[in-house]
Amino acid sequence: MYVGAGLPAGxxxxxxxIVLEWARRADAGPFSSLGVVDRLAYDSYEPLSALAAAAAVxxxxxxxxxxxxxxxRNTSLLAKMAxxxxxxxxxxxxxxxxxxxxxxxxxxxxxxxHSRGRRLEEQLAELRSLWEEGTIGPRAVRPGGPLxxxxxxxxxxxxxxxxxxxxxxxxxxxxxxxxxxxAQARAAWIDAGRPGRPQLWAQGYFALGDDAxxxxxxxxxxxxAFAGSFAxxxxxxxxxxxxxxxxxxxxxxxxxCDEVILFPAxxxxxxxxxxxxxxxxxxxxxxxxxxxxxxxxxGGVWP
Amino acid sequence: xxxxILGGGPAGLxxxxxxxxxxxxxxxxxxxxxxxxxxxxxxxxxSDRTLASFQLADYKTxxxxxxxxxxxxxxxxxxxxxxxxxxxHVIASIARKLLLNILQRRCAExxxxxxxxxxxxxxxxxxxxxxxxxxxxxxSLVRRTYAGHFKPGIEQGTARYIWLGAExxxxxxxxxxxxxxxxxxxxxxxxxxxxxxxxxxxCEEQTWLKSGLEGASEAESLAYCERLLARDLxxxxxxxxxxxxxxxxxxxxxxxxxxxxxxxxxxxxTAHFSIGSGTKLAMEDAIAxxxxxEQHSDLEEAxxxxxxxxxPVIELFQRASRQxxxxxxxxxxxxxxxxxxxxxxxxxxxxxxTYNDLKLRDARFGDAVDRRFSCHxxxxxxxxxxxxxxxxxxxxxxxxxxRVALAPRIACAxxxxxxxxxxxxxxxxxxxxxxxxxxxxxVAVSADGRITPECPGIYTEEHMDAWAKIVQSIHxxxxxxxxxxxNHAGRRGAARPRVRGVDRALxxxxxxxxxxxxxxxTPRSQVPREMxxxxxxxxxxxxxxxxxxxxxxxxxxxxxxxxxxxxxxxxLSPLTNRRGDEYGGDFEKRARFPLEVFDAVxxxxxxxxxxxxxxCASDCVRGGATVEEAIALARMLxxxxxxxxxxxxxxxxxxGAPEYGRGFLTPYxxxxxxxxxxxxxxxxxxxTSDEVNTILAGRRADLCIMEPPAPxxxx
Lengths: 303, 715
Prior knowledge:
By secondary structure, chain A is α/β, with parallel strands linked by helices. Chain A is 46% helix and 15% strand.
């Protein structure tokens, strides 16, 4: 399993220079990818813009959205932005899409909330064709365009993932909840008759050090405020010690995760330093060994 | 803190005493509407794990509870007048009344105020509090008052049950299955002291209505049950405690706390009595709540921690409970199983106990399961028996060396229908992996029946020769048998290769797809041409020709694809078949063409070789084909010489998605197999021998399709 670092671009008030410096240092550190999350009606950076900036100051790490709220965006424009970042970063983009969970983001964009599932379905069907056909360029670095992941927990969501994407991106939670989702994703993949196996990505949040825990929990509660009393449950899942991070990573690895991205809950470079220390000591694989194309993802261990 | 606990049942009393013990400064009052010595129900059961947690939580009450226990470690199953015992299930029970007395005394000793006979009309009557613990049961006044915040949902079961006692000390926990002229009755019974046992008697609603128990008095109900269970009771009387026939209500609550109010036990959740008592769950809740209050000084954090700890546990428990409940609601479908098979099926009903678990708990029982499975398969008495997975399966003259099939999915399988070398080698490698059966496919019966341009076919001499080579090579080097799944893609045809997704229409000119009605599979798919009379005949003949070629190529088993929204499936579903002719309309008419194809193929496929159909157990869409129709279809197929049905679900339309997860197709296979009386094959993401053995020994399928383990687990 690979371990990535989330950019602090989803944290209110995060300074632009810190976001860029974070990207530079992560690229030099033990991380395989940089992740971004998406909210519209919130004090956060637009995820694809953040990744475009990160592309300019990094050379090695993959640039992943976990996730971008697809239905908020025009599909052709989204295809072009993704292809552009992919081309500018020499094929490092991983595009995770989902319907998101907050109605206010849809209201802010003037997009109907209730047809979001159908819209995402259409987008997934069109994105790949747009990349493959290359009509709106730049030309995809890999034949099928960027690695495409889909999030969501419904049976429909898993079916959609298996029908159109290269894999699944999990929304968060303890390893046991990921393991269940991973089984659902694999089952849907097999049922759809796809060769090989789905890529399985996941994410978690951390705040390391006594000075950061309180504000980290406050950020989590604020970010997930839409979830009502569930926000408290999510905030309680914040990883606040090196042991918690190590256990989390091992748990996800055992459950068959391909890549987990750890997002900060506090936009401070010392947080990245502390995470680098923990992940560095675990000695996980580096992205240099990663297969380049989705076609080379092994299909399990058929004899 | 001033703490009010509503409800003086085990949950309320236990949480009160644990919280008070941890911090004697708390001012705790428990309010109960009944008198101190009135209680409903007979005995309650606890598992050994629950007992261990009681011991840690409060040794004093544990000691008293333990001294009054009836402990057993076996489950008896009485069915067809035979009783089979399976050991290793440590469970203890105690009279509910005794338990309450012990807890009440301890509460009083710790200085908790207990108010009995205290009926609350409204929460306003409670007065001031810092924390309100609602342990006031399934009809919780607190939960109802703040329903908008707790968001409860109640689901009523379809079976009826009555909670009785019996003046008889059973040996151990006992399931009794008794049939009379009205139907099947199930009894969950266990001793809870030296002289009395709990008897919960349950039956399907139809049975209950037929039996006339709906209008029966208490005495008439008792007399009816005493007659029904005469052999089991051996003259002992049944006892009632204001008992009525009711249906089980499963309560799920989205949120368990709101401000300074928290729900506990039955007020927050219920789970069917067949997998354990609500008392056990409630007392475990009490332990978690007391622990959280001790650990967190902030009340909101404490209540969140409690909810986080217990909710996932309860959700898992409720999932198993639903499985178990639905087993008892439909147990009559298993009446053709013999006692050993029936017992294994019963014990593994909720998915929480597997074949391996039972082997560990009771090695003799486990061996008996293996022996029974082998005997059934070979009709010879077996003393030395392999696990079910390694028991051969004979279908007509073909014997599969074991019960595992592999159905490989691979990219770039073919060009112009001709299976390529990499596909051939892949199939051969799979055959050397130890599986009893390899299933090649879906293989198209015509060029326009292909799903994608890379889809293999069997419609030219060249194809046939290529398949013959693969079959020969497998037969020469392995004991595995090889089957071929014949398919016509219908409206799911002319799609791009599946490596980057499915149902993506080929760009540019491809081939015309056909279907019973001109409805595209997705909004971007090609609109199919409605099949005419000559198309119907041509497709049937294509299947027949393919079957001929499959025979020439030496395949051992032939499968026809009636599922996943391909051509024949499109005839079967009302969602995709809108025809007005003899091939559309009611179920019989929609099944007509697929059955014509089946009959035509059966007529040319050798009598000594098995023929199978892959059927769709449910469209998984409202208004689509249901599992009842799938069962009806399976019966028709069986009578026409279908030897084994492979069970799938969903994909009739892109909206139809089953509940994905490990073994997600097993419940469908279970129903088709046991209601239609046909052998079944099931896959659905099975990766371990334990899953396979549990499915086979539980008679939920006869053959399992396994998937390779994840790469990290390969060694």
